[in-house]
Amino acid sequence: MVAHRVVYVTILALGVLVLGGSAAAQSAPASSSSAFGVRVVLPGGAGETAGAVSAPPRGGSTLNGWSYGDGAVSAGSLSTAARTSASSTATGEGSATIQSVSLFGGEITADAVLVRATARASGRGAAGSLDASSVSNLVALGSPVQTAPNTRVALGDWGYMVVLEKAVVRQNQARLGFRGFATGLHVVLTAAHGGLPAGAEIMVGYAEAAASARKAVPPPQPPPPPTTKPPAQGPPREPVPSTPGTVPPPTVQNPPQNVDPKLTAAGYVFPVYGQASFGDDFAAARATTGWHHGNDIFAPLGAPILAVADGTLFLVGWNDVGGNRLWLRDGAGNEFYYAHLSAYSPIAREGAQVKAGDVIGFVGATGDAIGTPPHLHFEIHPLELLWMGYDGVINPYPYLTAWLRLDDIAFGGWTPQAGRAPEAGAVLLQADDISSLSGLGDDSLSSYLVMPDLFGEGQPGPTIVGAETGFSG
After folding, report:
1. What b/e readout covers 165-182, taking b as 16+ CB neighbours within 10 angstroms?
2. What is the mean pLDDT of residues 166-189?
3. pLDDT digits (tens, 9 = 90+) for 81-90
4. Are 173 and 454 in contact (CB under 8 A)?
5. Mean pLDDT score, 184-212
6. For residue 275, how many other CB atoms are within 10 A of its CB?
């Protein structure tokens, strides 16, 4: 569950949340698009964006040069555009072109980054494309980089980069819809580097487009002609046996003898024992899951993972996204999600009662974190938000910071913050709890990405701040 933080997520109103729009407006084809050239985000949300545009209305931006920090980011030129149209067919297109890209004084260079997202929808179908996106002559730390979609590149001991990060969400119920976004380069710092702190992120080239339309109602079919004899019956067919999926067996290790966790006054403990680093990567865009529901805590492979509170373990086992994962429910009903463990401790069993500070597993990189630095993906699901399902999360960062400092902050009575969120670089349309699934193939994953009846493009609706995305992965 390595975070891709740079994109702040604005949740658009869906279904019953679409308020104030007429029935006719909600049934009409609709579209939206947006793009930006470069975005730098620092821990806590500070940073800067160049060339941000969105549609509707149609927008465009051109800059002859742009830089940030002391050589951290520079671009020779950048241009962005966003446009939409809606009649019998809705269309949306976002694009960004950035020339002569240099990051960290030339440690990462590219001749050009081009991202383009298109979407169209009518009552007969919806489709789109991200295929026109490309990165030319990409070099990282002196070595050429292949630019296949969603390629992850390690950057020494200070970070990683995702190349041509792409994601698509489709809708196929009462409305037909397509939404896709693409990012050319996405750099995440796991340690301070080039004048930027750990947790900082850089995105070069971003575009997204969405379109939806109400599904056309097929004409009624005439009744079949009468027949004087029953249809011929073939021989009985045997059911086709299914092949069960294979799940890697869990690994169990004994905890080290010298673990001495420090508890806060409220009885909570930081979930990783020993040396660890983390940033505020909550609400980051994810190519496979849409958005990131927690924080990633980087630590050495095999570092002990601790129960943050007294409580009960459940859903202890494997899924293809979280790898070795488990959940902890504390005495107040709050729930905590741990993912990517390399192994479990002997007490990590379904229904086990644990105490704050007990070793329940070990840091790893299992599931979709294979190939990334070892880390723990950690989420907080407060009791007050459990009715929202997997979306009922809050940003763990202030709690992790408080537990690390051996103090605490109020946990109960959480409510969304007031005000509006920063402008969205990606839009979360739906999130489903896939933390208990195993063997996620294309068919099963696509079934979980089926959207509600409305995308909400062009419709006024509330902006929700404080909820973060991401399936656990």
Report:
1. bbbbbbbbeebbbbbbbb
2. 85
3. 999 987 888 8
4. no
5. 91
6. 9
425, 45 Cβ separation under 8 angstroms: no
Query: Using one digit for the tens of pLDDT, what is the confidence trace for 305-350?
Result: 999 999 999 989 888 888 899 999 998 889 999 999 999 999 999 9
Mean pLDDT of the chain: 77
How big is the chain, counted in residues?
473
Closest of 298, 343, 351 to residue 325, by C-alpha: 343
